[in-house]
């Protein structure tokens, strides 16, 4: 199933600024910025989207976070729209991109689970040790 699905045409579609890939990237990047920006600023990391928006627009942290959530919601809408269009990308490959965006939601559902894996304990335990009834 590998080579016949992951064709050159599919690869070129994904790497040429596809709306699906861009939306997935936006979801991951902005969720990370929202949930990790305070921790990262304490460690002198580069400015996140939250700090950049606040500085550029003279906004509060709350306004910046709401703006980024709006961008995330719009990215999910873009993903839904891409699934409705014909593309050279097989659905099975599109599903991989969708699952990456979904995993971002899982990582940040209860805080910054990407940085602090203890927040992911229940999900990881369920995934690795709890059988799925068939």
From TrEMBL:
This is Terpene synthase metal-binding domain-containing protein. Residues 1-78 form the Terpene synthase metal-binding domain. GO terms for molecular function: magnesium ion binding; terpene synthase activity. Pfam families: Terpene_synth_C (PF03936). Transmembrane segments: none annotated. Keywords: Lyase, Metal-binding. GO terms for biological process: terpenoid biosynthetic process. InterPro entries: Isoprenoid_synthase_dom_sf (IPR008949), Terpene_synthase-like (IPR050148), Terpene_synthase_metal-bd (IPR005630). Its cofactor is Mg(2+).
